[in-house]
Amino acid sequence: MLEGTAAALAAQAFTGLVLGGIFVLLAIGLSLIFGLMTVVNFAHGALYMLGAYFGFFLLGLTGSFWVALALAPLMVGVLGLGIERFMVRRLYGRSVDDPLLLTFGLSLVFVEAARVIWGKTGLTLDPPRALAGFVDLGFVVFPTYRLFVIGVTAAVLLGLWLFLARTNVGLVIRAGSRDPLMVRALGIDVGRVWLLVFGLGAALAGLAGILAGPMRGVYAEMGVTIIIESFVVVVVGGMGSLTGAVVAGLLIGEVVSLTTFFAPKLADIVVFLVMAAVLLLRPSGLFGEAGLLE
Amino acid sequence: MRAALDAVVAQVRAHPVAAFLLVFALFPFLAPYHALATQVLIHGLFALGFNLLYGYTGLLSFGHAAYYGLGAYGTGIALARLGWSSLWAGLAAGVGLALVGGAVIGFFCLRRRGIYFAMLTLAFAQLLYFIGFHLKEWTGGDDGLRGIPALPLTLGPLALPLDTSLRFYYFALALVTLAVAALRRILDSPFGAVLEAIRENTARAVACGYDVTRVKLLSFVFSAGFAGLAGALDALRLTVVPIEALYWTTSGQVVIMTLLGGAGTFFGPFVGAAAFLVLEDRLAVITESWPLVIGAIFVLFVLFLPQGLWGTLLQRLAPRGAARPAPAASVAGARPSAP
């Protein structure tokens, strides 16, 4: 009996890691875009949703999950480039609230457009046959696809870290989130970096969407709840802090998953209780610097 | 012609509450149908509350559904669950609950400034939505709170049944006019001047020695109170509170209405509510996908008409050299780091 509970708990903890991975992918994009441009991208949830739908579309077109997994984030990334270049860019120099309002409007448009194109009922996205089974990890039997999601998330995080820490563009991004004025004074075209980061953040959201699709289903409102939870992740981690996004994402994933196990009714609410506690005890978030980017 | 127009504009500016009452006393006969007129009035009040916080104080709340919903559920629960038999007591319960909710949530949200504020208000509103969803015994959960009685309006020994939509409209109009007068009073007070000082330059307001956090919190609580009254009136109008009252789409709607009309303008919220609801009413006949159209219009407004319908009109009508209307919050406080 006790052993059974322990195994179920371990499975639930692993599920929390998967959910946390999805949160991390979303929160990192949000945090990067915010850190660099002080833009809160409300459309991030809608881009996540579009990632899943583009994946569904590409899977139907090509028959290959792998092609869909590679191309859907790219498509969302290109959409992100367009949003920055033709819309958000016009709002630099106006209030910080304006990009938030703009992207809120865009999210309404995207969600409704998805309903028009793909219908109101949810779709299912099948993982490839190679990932369909279960793996016996010794202490718990876990769906292969979920392990795959953890692996992809870890690989993307590693790649992102290398990109930010080791490349020149990464250096400019980090410098730009510290002091954009100084970066411009050094003769660097920050506009291009902003464009790139917005596209990158959008692509990460799209990736999170197609990864989540086979687990959570594909429907037009799928981005709504998760974007609010991702906001909480960013607030808990400390806005603009990538370490914070990773730690808080995994933390919230675990908290949600374990609460679902022990007290299912509280699962929707516990995220916000964690947020309230962090706000009371450490208003700038776990890894945020007080006063930074406010 | 221009002189006559200027005279009208000057009169409206000098007596905004009277102008409001005059226009809305006639409004049911101009609107497509009475129910829509009441909806415009109540959602205009909701947007007025939001506008106090966003347009005048510069704080963008994405969670005003919380206070509208608390107002609706407070009134609904008092009348349908607790069996209170007075319309006024029911309304007071709703407004009171919204004020308390505003004070508690405002305290938390104001611990972070700037853009965090919007995210926090949204998160707390979503928290209330889930609580409402799970507290089935009190709120009816997913099915909504049903069975709110249609109580007569009592004033001393007088009792007037609010059994036609036109009667309910004028009852709501009386209360909304009081709210409009209260807002005018708030904005004309020294407190109102501090609000606008905070919107224009928070650092300077701090330097002038104002307790900015306290002033913001008061503005938040007033704003929640107006939203709560709107929710309470809507509960009476519909005799049911749907769970969507607390949902984020309700928060989004009030943002859209206020921005369409013109944030930071006195009548903008009502203009925006009318524009939104009439548009929704007409579009819903043509297409199921009306949110797509409204979303696209909203995006165009943010990009190209940030002062909204009423704000833009005011700017056109402002006589040369005279004091211009307060600019929309969106043009205030530009970031120094942006190109």
How would you describe this structure to a colleague?
The complex is a heterodimer of chains A (294) and B (339). Chain A is an all-alpha fold and 294 residues long. Chain A is built from eleven helices and two strands. In chain A, strand 1 and strand 2 (141-143) form a beta hairpin. The longest helix of chain A is centred in the N-terminal third of the chain and has 36 residues, at 2-37. Chain A is globular. Chain B has a domain at 21-247. Chain B is 71% helix and 2% strand. Chain B is built from 15 helices and two strands. A two-stranded antiparallel ribbon of chain B has the order 1-2. The chains are: A mainly alpha (294), B mainly alpha (339). The interface between A and B is large, with 52 and 49 residues.
- Give a count of the beta strands of chain B, DSSP E runs of length 2 or more: 2
Average pLDDT number of chain A: 90
**Could you describe the largest sheet of chain B, including whether it forms a barrel?**
2 strands, antiparallel
Oligomer: heterodimer
Main interface by residue count: A-B, 52 and 49 residues
Name the overall outline of chain B.
globular
Number of distinct helices of chain B: 15
